[in-house]
Write a structure and sequence with these properties.
Helix content is 59%, strand content 2%. The protein has 435 residues and is mainly α. The chain folds into two domains: 1-23 and 37-271 and 393-424, Citrate Synthase, domain 1 (Orthogonal Bundle); 275-382, Orthogonal Bundle (Cytochrome p450-Terp, domain 2), CATH 1.10.230.10. The protein has a two-stranded antiparallel sheet. The longest helix has 27 residues, at 166-192. Bound molecules: nitromethyldethia coenzyme A and D-malate. GO terms for molecular function: acyltransferase activity, acyl groups converted into alkyl on transfer.
């Protein structure tokens, strides 16, 4: 069976032709008018990017290469005795559009374990960070510093031809993903204690090794949770802040480490990935204010007090989705299966019954339903990972899968530097003066 790189080498020439044909047939067709509000409104709904790994439907949620989350859970190879998909398989799917065999997935696990060590100077950077520096800032620093050994940057400096860009990009993408557990594990132990970082096991899967480095390898259910967690957080089409930032920075031919470091800085914002931390902080505050088993009315009041203070309800709303996020539902199903009696899960469920009605009544949010971040923290907390300001790091590890897959294709297909047109308010006023 071919390796991922061999499979890619087979797929790329046909895809170059496919894109050429698509542009020849449809290149001059319009998606409709661009309106001025979109320039002021965060480009909402503006068709602007090609992203092949996944597409988001407002009603149905994400599909990875056409497959829904339940389909992916069903189709992708599992670990021995496990029932959640291995993220290695999801990466193969994102890159090739094909479901890999168990053997191909196992080969990826071994390859990533073999590439997993980080340079000692990066270890030193992390060891010198004050524990008060947010884990996401430490994560971004370390990923950016991996650019020291970028195969792409080196090949570019040596004059590589455009048509070969994808090859060192592929190597960097694989190294990037492979090295994240050692970075995340080191940050976790430096900030929260837990002793010396253990070694990656060469014959174990990625999620097992990540769990091991965090100190949770003795909890098989937590390892299963990580497999599901990475899979569902990996990709959410191209327009979200982290994915788009990675693509944008990569378009300047900055290598995958520089590009993904930039993604992480966007993911660290409270309206994006940091929302998973914010949700837990918000729930804990609610618990300390209302005590165990609050009434629905008390929760409702608490939600209203958040809105009246001019804050957002974290974990609710979405720029694209208009229904409950299927990633939320996948996590809810995991909770119903493994931790139905967990008091914090019960609170999350109670909040799920109350917040949408309050947001509808308040009448501002276009989507009153929960997103992925409303549920992830409570699952991690259940297994003892209650260090809330680490949560976005796990989102970041996962998001590398989607961003890396697209970076490989962008370089294979010769994607140009991104440079949309901007306007000043004065220019807009002038343009529409008499219209
Ligand atoms: N709580 C309170 N107000 C909200 C919420 C919410 N959860 N969601 C939207 N609104 C407000 C929003 O702030 C805006 O107010 P204003 O007109 O005063 O500026 C108004 O409703 C309209 O916003 P939308 O068009 O519905 O939302 P938009 O597309 O601009 O933003 C989010 C999307 C996700 C940033 C927004 O829903 C939000 O802030 N949610 C809470 C934070 C969160 O959960 N983020 C995680 C998203 C998923 N992820 O991992 O990235
Ligand atoms: C994501 O996973 O990136 C978030 O849901 C945000 C988005 O899609 O805009």
């Amino acid at each position: 069976a071919p390796t991922l790189k061999e499979r890619l080498a087979d797929l790329i020439p046909a895809e170059i032709e496919n894109v050429k044909a698509t542009r020849a047939a449809h290149g001059k067709k319009s998606f409709g008018p661009v309106i001025v509000d979109q320039l002021y409104g965060g480009m909402r709904g503006l068709p602007a990017l090609i992203w092949d790994g996944s597409v988001l439907d407002a009603e149905e949620g994400i599909r990875f290469r056409g497959m829904t989350i339940p389909e992916v859970q069903q189709a992708l190879p599992k670990a021995p005795g496990g029932s959640e998909p291995l993220p290695e398989g999801l990466f193969w799917l994102l890159v090739t559009g094909e479901v890999p065999t168990q053997e191909q997935v196992n080969a990826l696990s071994r390859d990533w374990a073999a590439r997993s060590s980080i340079p000692s100077f990066v270890e030193e950077i992390l060891d010198r960070c004050p524990p008060t520096l947010h884990p996401m800032s430490q994560f971004s620093l370390a990923v950016t510093a991996l650019n020291h050994d970028s195969a792409f940057a080196k090949a570019y400096a040596e004059g590589i031809s455009k048509k070969d860009y994808w090859q060192p990009t592929f190597e960097d993408a694989m190294d990037l993903i492979a090295k994240l557990p050692n970075i995340a594990g080191r940050i976790f132990r430096n900030v929260y204690g837990g002793g010396k970082l253990p070694a990656i096991e060469a014959d174990k899967d990625y999620s097992y090794n990540l769990a091991k480095l965090l100190g949770f390898a003795d909890k098989p259910e937590f390892v299963e949770l990580l497999r599901l967690y990475i899979t569902i957080h990996s990709d959410h089409e191209g327009g979200n802040v982290s994915a788009h930032t990675g693509k944008l920075v990569g378009s300047a031919l900055s290598d995958p480490f520089l590009a993904f470091g930039a993604s992480l800085n966007g993911l660290a914002g409270p309206l994006h990935g940091l929302a998973n931390q914010e949700v837990l902080v918000w729930l804990r505050k609610m618990q300390s204010k209302l005590g165990e088993n609050p009434t629905d009315e008390a929760v409702r009041e608490y939600v209203w007090s958040t809105l009246k203070a001019g804050q957002v309800v974290p974990g609710y709303g979405h720029a694209v989705l208009r229904k409950t996020d299927p990633r939320y539902m996948a996590q809810r199903e995991f909770a119903l299966k493994h931790l139905p009696e967990d008091p914090m899960f019960k609170l999350v469920s109670q909040v799920f019954n109350i917040v949408p009605n309050v947001l509808l009544e308040a009448g501002k949010a276009k989507n009153p339903w929960p997103n992925v971040d409303a549920h992830s923290g409570v699952l991690l907390t259940h297994y003892g990972l209650d260090q809330m300001n680490f949560y976005t790091v796990l989102f970041g590890v996962s998001r590398a899968f989607g961003v890396a897959a697209q970076l490989i294709w962008d370089r294979a297909l010769g994607a140009p530097i991104e440079r949309p047109k901007s306007y000043s308010t004065a220019a807009i006023q002038k343009m529409f003066k008499d219209k």
